[in-house]
Amino acid sequence: MNKFTPTVLYHSKLITLDQIVLNEVESQSRNQSIDKDNLKGIEQSIAQVGLKNPIAVEVAHIDPRDESNSKFKLRDGCHRYKAYQNLQAMHKNTTNFDRITCVVYEKNVGQYAAFDWLQWQHQQNEHLEKRCRHNSYEDSIVTAYKLLTAGYLGKDIAKLVEKGHWGNPLVDDKLKSWFKNNCKGLSESARDQLITDVHLKGAHLRNCKVKHYSRSDLQKILLSKYGIKPGRGGATSPITNTTVWVASEQDSWTKVLSPVYRVFKDGNKAGNNTIVFHCRKNGDNIDHINTQRKKIKERVKTINDWFSNNIPAFKHVKVIDDVKILGQKLAKEYGEKDGEFC
Q1: Which of 133, 164, 198 is the last residue before a domain boundary?
Q2: For helices 169-182 and 137-150, what crossing angle results, to 10°?
Q3: Domain housing 239
Q4: For residue 50, is it left (φ>0), alpha (ψ between -120 and 50) or beta?
């Protein structure tokens, strides 16, 4: 992958709005329209205190005789630029919004110039300390897909996907590296899902070895099977009179003890208790998944055995009636299914 650092010509230069043109579609990391709520807030801020962060432009054409004829491509600051356009239209009797402060970068004439800027712009939008709309999930997918298929992440990788060889492990290795280096604050499972969605954008169904369940995934499953939404505590199904706790390896002890606390609090057991379990950490490690599944079953058995041996009312009654394991090992050799219990 190319490493691109644009050369600064001017750290701060006032440029008229009509000298600035929008960047090319292929080098635009935003894939949604203007965020109107965000835009309104930026307009109000600029009107009250001025522009705090200059926009970034690249030289497109310099007229040495008449600077007003020079042109620049917008590279970062689409919302700020649009806010200035709106303020200019609203304040036609003043010239306060005719020019905007810019960081001006030297023209990039490299082979992958458009994709250099695409990579750079995505990185700019990842700066969490900046007051800007950060890359959305879709922004990152589209950016990675463009860079991959254009050969920016490697010509050999681009040739593989061009020929339909998305299943080659080199493709996933390259995408995994890119998401790790360019998408801040994401878990391993989130990055893995991004890779899967890049495959889908290339019309390829990725044979995921391990499934990671997001909150929305769990919500759909529990709504479908129990008519409930997952929460931090247990949720009781109006369909089956079953209270369901969703557990992972990170909170398995807390969740298996929750039915115990409820029994002591209420003085008896009302309805059935079920644990729905899935792994969240060490995503692609099959041994880790197997170990954690075994552990939670052992913990549930320990609790049920203790109650059976020490409390007469529970001699033939389980505190926790069932442990449902969500299918995560989706490769053919394991035979598990996405969203199904195994």
Answers
A1: 133
A2: 130
A3: 215-325
A4: left
* Predicted local distance difference test score (pLDDT) of residue 267: 85
Residues 173, 295, single domain; the answer is no
Q: Strand order of the sheet with strand 272-277?
A: 235-236, 242-247, 272-277, 322-325
CB contact at 8 A, 174 and 157: yes
In a domain, 170, yes or no: yes
114 within 8 A of 73, measured Cβ to Cβ: no
Q: Does 9 score more than 90 pLDDT?
A: yes
101, 133, 165 - which closes a domain: 133
* Rg of the chain in Å (alpha carbons): 27
| 146: Cβ contacts below 8 Å, ≥ 6 apart | 26, 115, 118, 152
**Are 124 and 142 found together in one domain?**
no
Q: Which among 50, 60, 67 has a CA at the least distance from the CA of 104?
A: 60
- Is a pLDDT exceeding 60 seen at residue 128? no
As a whole number of angstroms, the distance between CA 229 and CA 78 comes to 38
3-state SS, residue 140: helix
Rounded to 10 degrees, what is the CA torsion of 104, 110, 116, 121?
Answer: 20
Q: How many domains is the chain partitioned into structurally?
A: 3
Residues 44 and 75 in one domain: yes
- Alpha helices (runs of H) in 151-187, residue ranges in sequence order: 155-162, 169-182
Interstrand relation of 242-247 and 272-277 (parallel, antiparallel or unpaired): parallel
| Domain assignment present for 340 | no
User: What is the average pLDDT across 25-44?
Assistant: 76
104 shares a domain with 52: yes
Residue range 274-309, pLDDT digits in tens = 999 999 876 567 888 999 999 999 999 999 999 999
Average pLDDT, the chain: 89
Contact 121, 113 (CB under 8 A): no
- Indicate if 82 and 175 belong to the same structural domain: no
